[in-house]
Prior knowledge:
The chain has 188 residues and is α/β, with parallel strands linked by helices. It has two domains: 3-35, no CATH class; 50-180, Rossmann fold (3-Layer(aba) Sandwich). 46% of the residues lie in helices and 17% in strands. The chain has helices at residues 3-6, 10-22, 37-51, 67-80, 97-107, 120-131, 163-180; strands spanning 26-29, 32-35, 55-59, 84-87, 110-114, 135-141, 158-160. Strand 3, helix 4 and strand 4 form a beta-alpha-beta unit.
Amino acid sequence: MDAPLLVCHEDEIAFLKETLWTDGFIQNKNAGTQVTMKGWERIQHIQKSGRESKRVFVAMWFDGSMDEVYDKAIAPAISRAGYLPLRIDRHPHVNRIDDEIIGQIKRCRFMVADFTGQRHSVYFEAGMMHGLARNVIWMCKTDDLKDVRFDVRQFAFIAYSSVAEAEKLLYDKILAIEGEGTLATTLT
C-alpha cells in the first residue's frame, strides 16, 4: 500500500523484499511475509536513533532577514544547551533536497520551528516531526504571530521581539524540557 512512497517500479519492490529477506529482516510464512525478530529489533533501533541524537533540526525561512535570528539566537541557544543545530540550507549534501530534509528530520532529537514569514515548508517539517512523536519547539516573531495558521495556534509559541529575547527564551525552553525529561515526547 505504501509502495508509491518508496519505489517507482515492481522490480524495486522485488529487490527490496529480496534484500530484507537475505538480511534476515523478513521471512515468508503461510503464503505471506512477516517481519522477523531481527527485523523488529532493527525497526526499534531506527526509531530510537533520532530520539537519542544530539542533533536538532531547525525549520525556518531561509531569507537573509532571518540569518541574524539563526546565527545569534537559535544556533547559540541550541549549542549552549548541548545540542548540534542543523539548518538544511547550511548542510552539505548530494541528495534531492526533499529526501535530505526527511532523512535529517528522522535523525534529529527534536526540532526548533520558527514560523516567522509563514513558510509552507516550516509547517510541513514541524508536522512531520510532530507526527514522529518528537518535540517541536514552536517560535515566531511577535509581530508575525497573528498570521500563524489556525491549526497550530494551540501550541505554546515562543513569541520574541528581539534576537536577544529569542536566544534567552529558546535556551530556557530547551533546559525546561530537559529538566522535565520530556525530550522524547511531543512538546506543546
